[in-house]
Automatic annotation (TrEMBL):
Any GO molecular function: metal ion binding
Cofactor binding: number and manner: Binds 1 zinc ion per subunit.
Reaction(s) this enzyme catalyzes, per UniProt: Met-enkephalin-Arg-Phe + H2O = L-arginyl-L-phenylalanine + Met-enkephalin; bradykinin + H2O = L-Phe-L-Arg + bradykinin(1-7); substance P + H2O = substance P(1-9) + L-Leu-L-Met-NH2; substance P + H2O = L-Phe-L-Phe-Gly-L-Leu-L-Met-NH2 + substance P(1-6)
Native source organism of the sequence: Piliocolobus tephrosceles (Ugandan red Colobus)
Active-site residues, as the UniProt record annotates them: 378 (proton acceptor 1), 378 (proton acceptor 2), 493 (proton donor 1), 493 (proton donor 2)
Protein name stated in the entry: Angiotensin-converting enzyme
Stated family: Belongs to the peptidase M2 family.
């Protein structure tokens, strides 16, 4: 059986494997793969990629807005074509000798092209991978939970609504468990296989695991430490928020449901995926006598329609002097779940078809403030598409994945401000006193900050891979530790990374834009609506796409080249102060005492050394000791070889010269004939050598590659 994946890998490694070939006498090839040629090559890529990607996106859009077997087939077919295309360019991109190139963006483009992603899989496995993905999406979109033979509910919007509005614990558990039974267990084996293939593709691309792939997308070596640092800084806010919510829910549901020493049960958090807890605001409102105005109710009272929600969010962008959505956007977007019984995938997303201003949003919208804000977020993606569309296609993506998410979210920060909602007539009370402000900030916190505990893994997602990972994994609750079993290679905190980074970035952007717009006063009161200066600042950063390393884009936008958590803390400081006081009065233990927070992943940072779990530094030391021992041993062996050799020679000459009684030699304390001794000693030496060269099974390859 041929292994196309393997031969591909060899080709990809060509540069690395045969460096000598590159240096010596290759003038003809040098000329062929020089910078001029690279530019022509990239132009060619640009033109063809537009067509290939467009066709793929078209069939995908067609499929997700009209789920049928036929449409799925078409999409899978185009996906295979796209993969072939990526292999074609990926392999060629490896051949250029970037070391001598002058233009940095040619360098970057070629590097990006070399990561061919899942296309690195052998063809049959690639096909399987795509099919698994499509099948999971299909199951997910069509699954329903039935009350009885006639009444069945699908996730969006019915079940989500139950999760959001019901305060009946039996009903909540029914919806939560019902959905997981309908989807989770059915999809589980598919998902495991899918993860296997994903990991394989990652490794074929030359990354150790998904984590390494993720870090490479950020082009920043210190990403992991940075994230850990953010988490430490965010800890006070997290712990206090979590503790407070715990108590508030305890008050409402009682001690038999809420164990103050355990996590908050997943079905009581107001959301199927515990992504946001804003739906249970009424249960955890800090000042319960000052009930905030119900914006959703006001919207319904004013007969808002989905079109108006889109138009309003577009108006926000144009008020900043940013670009309006192109006419085709309105034709192609799917704003509501179709009423003609057609199956669709409701998961909210924005797509870019890379050709002729063809952008769109898919959403099964309801008239609620949450959905309005989520449209603002999606319109942020559309704005990014519009701004970078003139770039070479390979740079048509966000500066990094978290940046992309932060762009939409920064607008929602302004749009959800009291000032803005008042302006567009969704609030009527002009004045906000300090108690209202704490209530308001609690709302934003529940919306933005996911309340973590032991189940953190399920809470965070952004990119499609993580979407699926988080949607489908560990969904059959009675299986303990299922998450770990799934893909030990994929370090979870990188997925949390996108979420954290985008959380921190959006507040950093917000502060910058507010400053530019001339806002005075507390950060949470800022609304950048109408500020052309803020709009210009944002637009200029978006225009760069991913053509520059993201710290440069960040610097351009904010004046700082590092991600900084200060703005987020400034924003929430009134809330944090209140929470600290309140929690102190309750005399609570902060956090989730019986659940170690898996974000820290203390365990997985351990390295196995001689079957012991040690932390990397200890293990490193151990290996140095082993190495030193090994070195000493080799010297000893070498010495022994020399000595044995000379001894043998000696005894041989003795043998031939005199027929005297044989002198006794000793081998391991046993007296025997010198020749025999020599033979055995040679054998022993040989054994030592074999043992030294062959790595014993307990010393794995991991030890030198932890990061
Ligand atoms: C690249 O190679 C071509 C011939 O294939 C040659 O005409 C051109 O001058 C070379 N360019 C550079 C920058 O060396
Ligand atoms: C959905 O796709 C099928 C083909 O699989 C097509 O016949 C049908 O017209 C499409 N429906 C809509 C509403 O586009
Ligand atoms: C392009 O990349 C190579 C190797 O990664 C590097 O040596 C070279 O300096 C880069 N050129 C530019 C202009 O950055
Ligand atoms: C199914 O449940 C719905 C909602 O509870 C109810 O209105 C309907 O009458 C039930 N139908 C049957 C056949 O039991
Ligand atoms: C893209 O190029 C067109 C034509 O040159 C120009 O009109 C448009 O303003 C550019 N778009 C952006 C976002 O720069
Ligand atoms: Zn998004």
């Amino acid at each position: 059986q041929t292994r196309p994946g393997l031969s591909l890998l060899v080709l990809l490694c060509y540069r690395q494997l045969l460096p000598c070939l590159w240096i010596k006498d290759e003038h003809s090839l040098d000329d062929f793969y020089n910078e001029t040629k690279a530019k022509i090559f990239l132009q060619f890529y640009d033109q063809t990629a537009k067509v290939v990607l467009n066709q793929f996106m078209e069939t995908t859009r067609n499929y997700v807005t009209n789920i049928t077997r036929k449409n799925q087939e078409e999409m899978l077919h185009k996906d295979m074509e796209r993969s072939q295309f990526m292999i074609y360019f990926g392999i060629r991109a490896c051949l250029f000798k970037v070391a001598q190139f002058q233009a940095q963006d040619v360098n970057r483009t070629l590097r990006k092209l070399q990561n061919i992603d899942k296309a690195a899989l052998p063809k049959d496995e690639l096909r399987e991978y795509n099919e698994l993905l499509a099948d999971m999406e299909m199951t997910y979109s069509m699954a329903q939970v039935c009350l009885n033979e006639t009444a069945c509910l699908s996730l969006e919007p019915e079940l989500e609504e139950v999760m959001a509005t019901s305060r009946n614990k039996e009903e909540l558990l029914w919806a939560w468990q019902g959905w997981r039974d309908a989807v989770g267990c059915q999809i589980r084996t598919t998902f495991e296989h899918y993860v296997e293939l994903s990991n394989k593709a990652t490794q074929l691309n030359g990354y150790k695991d998904m984590g390494a792939l993720w870090r490479s997308k950020y082009e920043l070596d210190t990403l992991k430490q940075d994230l850990e640092w953010f988490f430490q800084e965010l800890r006070p806010l997290y712990l206090n928020l979590h503790t407070y919510m715990h108590w508030a829910l305890h008050r409402h549901y009682g001690p038999e449901l809420i164990d103050l020493r355990g996590p908050i049960p997943a079905h009581l958090r107001g959301n199927m995926w515990a992504q946001s807890s804003v739906n249970i605001l009424d249960l955890v409102l800090p000042f319960s006598k000052k009930i905030p105005e119900d914006v959703t109710k006001i919207m319904k009272g004013q007969h808002w329609k989905s079109e108006k929600m889109f138009e309003d969010s577009e108006k926000f962008f144009t008020s900043l002097g940013l670009l309006p959505a192109p006419p085709s956007f309105w034709k192609k977007s799917m704003l509501m779940r179709p009423t003609d019984g057609q199956e669709v995938e409701c998961h909210t997303s924005a797509w870019n078809s890379y050709l002729d201003d063809d952008f769109g949003i898919k959403k099964c919208m309801e008239v609620t403030i949450e959905d309005l804000l989520s449209i603002f977020h999606e319109m942020g993606h559309i704005q990014y598409f519009l701004q970078y569309k003139n770039l070479s296609i390979i740079f048509c993506e966000g500066a990094n994945p978290a940046f992309e998410e932060a762009v939409g979210s920064v607008i929602t920060l302004s749009a959800s401000s009291h000032k803005h909602l008042l302006n567009i007539g969704l609030l009527s009370l002009k004045h906000q006193d300090s108690e209202d402000e704490v209530n308001f900030l609690m709302r934003i916190a529940l919306e933005k900050i996911k309340i973590f505990d032991g189940t953190i893994r399920k809470d965070i997602y952004n990119q499609e891979w993580w979407n699926l990972r988080l949607k489908y994994q560990g969904l059959c609750p009675p299986v303990p530790h299922s998450e770990e079993d799934f893909d030990p290679g994929a370090k979870f905190h990188i997925s949390a990374g996108v979420y954290f980074l985008s959380l921190v970035l959006q507040f950093q952007f917000h502060e910058t834009l507010c400053k530019a717009s001339g806002h005075m006063g507390p950060l949470h009161q800022c609304d950048i609506y109408n500020s052309k200066i803020a709009g210009k600042l944002l637009g200029d950063a978006l225009k760069l796409g991913s053509s520059k390393p993201w710290p440069e884009v960040l610097k351009m936008l904010t004046g700082e080249s590092e991600v900084c958590i200060k703005a987020l803390m400034t924003y929430f400081i009134p809330l944090l102060n209140w929470l600290v006081t309140d929690n102190m009065q309750q005399g609570d233990i902060l956090g989730w005492p019986d659940f170690s927070c898996s974000f820290e992943e203390k365990d997985t940072d351990k390295v196995t050394f001689l079957n012991l779990k040690l932390d990397p530094n200890q293990a490193k030391f151990g290996y140095w000791v082993l190495l030193a021992l090994g070195f000493v041993m080799s010297l000893v062996v070498l010495g022994l070889v020399c000595r044995l050799h000379s001894l043998e020679k000696q005894s041989l000459t003795q043998d031939t010269e005199i027929f005297s009684p044989l002198p006794n030699a000793y081998f391991l304390g046993i007296a025997m004939e010198p020749r025999q001794t020599a033979k055995r000693q040679w054998m022993l030496l040989g054994l030592c050598l074999v043992l030294m060269l062959r790595t014993p099974p307990w010393v794995r390859a991991e030890w030198w590659s932890w990061d």
